[in-house]
Amino acid sequence: MIFQMPGPTATSDWATIAWIIISLFWILLLFTDILDRSRIIRYDRFVRVKLMYIEKLIKEAREDSERFLKELGVKDPKNVIDGFIGNNFVIEPVSIEPVDIIKRMSHLLRTRDSKIKAYVNSIMPDNIDNVKKTNFMVLLEINWILDFYYRYIRHLYLYSRKYKLWLYLIQLSMVLPVVIKELEAVRKAVEPFSKGVPVGDSAGPMVVSLLAPTSERILIEEETVYSKIDFEGRNLYLIKAEGPGGTVGRPGEALAKLVEELQGKVARIITVDAALKLEGERSGSVAEGVGAAIGDPGPEKIAMERVAAKYNIPLDAVIIKMSSREAITEMTKEIYEGVLKAAERVKEIIRTKVSPGSNVIVVGVGNTIGVK
Amino acid sequence: MILLQIDVGTLLIILLIIMLIATVIPNLLSGEEKEKNVRPKIFTEISCVNNDYSETREYVPGDYVGKILQDRKCPKCGSQLYIKGIYSVYPEERKKESVFT
Predict the structure, then answer these.
(1) Which of B10, B56, B64 to mutate: most A Cβ within 10 Å?
(2) How far is A92 from chain B (nearest CA, A)?
(3) What is the ipTM of this complex?
């Protein structure tokens, strides 16, 4: 095929007009910021659409939570949720002077927990059991997280528009798809926590439950229990949050208390927890390492490390890997199979590293929703 | 041999249309994946305390791990039955989301 280009004499009027338009178009592109502005309009629209989507997630989560409250007989559930969302923040302790920061942080977190409990107790009818109350506390947190993220993203969006900080807007639009995925997972967490179904994060308590399914649970710390069983000649102590309500308890403080009660005569401490997998890793895979397996802001983890170091007790960690989404939504079969494997791994550690007659403590860390 | 006569203006317009198509179509096709509201099926695994019997049934509200089933006994040894685990299963579609896992 050959294209034969005619000479300039063959150029028609409309072709000349087209040529001028194209030339003007290129001049505009090269010498003005029209291209940048058109991109900013696109970023702006993208962020606005995402904000509307987060609004939709908030609305859905609110409707489900209000339905849950209505079923429990709470009057005016909308105001109950609004009352929590608008009045829930914790000011971080001073970190420039780190002396006793853990003590101060622990105090603030305990104060916050007590405040939430008092709020829930004040609005719930007396006949509602603690399991439903703790589940509702988690639902309040879910609604607060969604609302906070919405307000914060909206703030960044409006701030960038107000002061023409286009870089803010571009960065926001870059990071929003990931944030949205996380918020979708948070929104989906409403269902398991209103039904009382175990989530991925319940893997640690579930391992403990599998090791001693029918043993008596003895209260050792607030919302934290322990059981004692004989495991092939070893004294096995099992610590977990008090279920089946949605709470994480105080596993660090409970461990410290139990070790002190045993006067430090503990051959080994094994912590079991759900852990975030890296992209590409298989959900439910189990790994064994050293240290305190707990995702805590500080007080519980340091309590574990301190008591282990004080009495020179080896501290093992068994983790069950999962994504952040899987951690807060209904436990999948893959993770459940990981829980079964983790329980076997814990038994194997005890058999091979703890001599008969010794004391060993297993701590199942995580939210014990749906697990007694 | 085919001989095509084409003037500069027509060629420019054709090029312009091709450029527009090349710019717009990929943008239209790269629509983000919308989150499908797929609900999982939840199952409860029941086991005998002596580990000689187990069964799986659909989750019933009120089930929790470690719950002793008062109304039933193990059909093999007559011991207590308890809820060993609760897990969810998503439809096959969801598993295909990740290529590398």
Answers:
(1) B64
(2) 35
(3) 0.84
Residue B59 lies in a domain: yes
> Can you tell me the distance from the alpha carbon of A179 to that of A173, in angstroms, rounded to the nearest whole number?
10
Give yes or no for a contact between A229 and A212, defined as CB atoms under 8 angstroms apart: yes
Task: Tell me, yes or no, if A35 comes closer than 8 A to chain B by beta carbon.
Answer: no
User: In chain A, where are the structural domains located?
Assistant: 34-194, 200-364
Nearest to B7 among A12, A209, A210 (CB): A12
Chain B residues inside the 8 Å CB shell of A371:
64-66
Please report the pLDDT score of residue B2 as a whole number. Answer: 56
Residue A164: exposure state from Cβ atoms within 10 A (0-12, 13-18, ≥19): exposed
Q: pLDDT tens digit string along A237-280?
A: 999 999 899 999 999 999 999 999 999 999 999 999 999 999 99
| A91 reaches B (C-beta below 8 A) | no
Q: Does B22 map to a domain?
A: no
Average pLDDT, chain A: 91
Cα–Cα distance, A270 to A288 (Å, whole number): 10
Q: Is residue B67 part of a domain?
A: yes
Examine residue B55 and state whether it is found in any structural domain, yes or no.
yes
> Per the structure, how many domains does chain B have?
1
Residues B25 and A14: their CA atoms lie apart, in Å, by: 27
Give the C-alpha separation, A256 to A303, whole Å.
6
Chain A residues near residue B4 by CB distance under 8 angstroms:
1-4
In this complex, do A11 and B82 lie within 8 Å of one another by their Cβ atoms? no
CA distance B91 to B99: 16
Cβ–Cβ below 8 Å for B87 and A336: yes
Give which of A350, A297, A343 is closest to A318, Cα–Cα. Answer: A343
- Is CATH 3.20.20.70 what the domain over A200-364 is classified as, yes or no? no
Cβ separation of A332 and B90 shorter than 8 Å? Answer: yes
Give the C-alpha separation, A157 to A175, whole Å: 13
User: Distance between CA A330 and CA A332 in Å, rounded?
Assistant: 6
Give the pLDDT confidence score for residue B101 in this predicted structure: 47
Among A26-40, B19-33, B45-59, the minimum mean pLDDT is found in B19-33
CB atoms within 10 A of CB A78: 11
What is the pLDDT at residue B35? Answer: 59
Structure-token pair, residue A184? 């979708």
